[in-house]
Amino acid sequence: MDEFTYRHGALHAEDMPIATLAEAVGTPFYCYSAATLRHHYNVLDNALAEAGLAERLICYSVKANSNLAVIATLAQLGAGADIVSQGELRRALEAGIPAEKIVFSGVGKTADEMRAALTVGILQFNVESLSEIDLLAETANAMGKTAQIALRVNPDIDAGTHEKISTGKAENKFGIAWEDAEAGFAHARALDGVAATGIDIHIGSQITELEPFRRAFEKIAGLLANLRADGHKIQRLDLGGGLGVPYGRDNDTPPDPLAYAQIIADVLGDSGCTIMLEPGRLIAANAGILVTSVIRTKQGAASREGGKNFMIVDAAMTELIRPTLYDAHHHIAPVAENEAATKQWDVVGPVCETGDYLGLDRALPVLESGALLAVFAAGAYGAVLGSAYNTRLPAPEVLVDGEKWAVVRARPDYQTLLDGEAIPDWL
User: Fold this and answer.
1) Is residue 248 over pLDDT 80?
2) I want to staple 204 with a disulfide (CB 3.0 to 4.6 A). Which of 130, 161, 277, 367 is the partner?
3) Is 109 left (phi over 0), alpha (psi -120 to 50) or beta?
């Protein structure tokens, strides 16, 4: 579900015409729907409640979309935050997420990042190696603090997703090896400065089948029983995120959040633990679109074998790298409904890379220069993965809430980009 709909032939974000926004801010730009963000958060939270999971905390995965306005919208609903850097810690706090609702994930936390998180008093560190536990214990001890930790364990489960967003297989860099999990908890128990009170797991992203989740949760249930039998006081189960979202393919049907919640309840509902989730894509993906203008079209010669039609637009892999990086599919449609006959087009950007495309072989009408296109389900891992490659100006971001809208990240000017660099005196 999203709040991007056509009214009288014109695409709207909630009550705002996309064409009006494009005229005001220029293209390309990202547009986010506050109503969609709220809806997706509430759907998941209500599903957990309906499944009987009263002790729960949804920690929005900031890496999916770290815009302050997006985080603040979710903070007002009671969301926590899952972070992976000191920068994301600062964003979460600035947007109004209480420190006691923040969990710090990631394999490469530094001592400086640990100190920053300990200073503000976050809820939990999700630790991923014994050496990380040692560094955190040393850092916390030096500050006179005790860090609450959950050990992220790697269950060696194939989630059936793209290899670059699979996180729960043995060959992935994440987590402590399953066979070493109990020894990891014993290691933590012997140290001052840390208290191992949780188990953390995350098997991947854009998962479209529920069975991998069930298998992972069943392994966690067994580990929990063994740890408690050994005297460990486990209070929290962080089950990660990963539920898939629809991106516009015919076979792209994600799982029902209620069915997902019911699996959690069936397997872990009597654990006596607070259930924590780390959704990012599920909340943000369909809450955002990328709006771009047609620069020109280039039609291939009909007589040439392999000839292609190219629709060249002003957005590029610098705005949305997912198609190139993950072979991702995003639905693309004109902002103004157009019933003219279609052709097959590669929708490409102006960056000097063959891999610079937003969509391949898309059925679209012939569009004039200046016509607007919307790239859907771009609210997660879109703007956050953007770059200034080819010295392109990063796209601005706009948040719409009913009839209200605001630029929540402005487009910089070229001088701002250049001001971040310097020519040495000797040149």
Assistant:
1) no
2) 161
3) beta
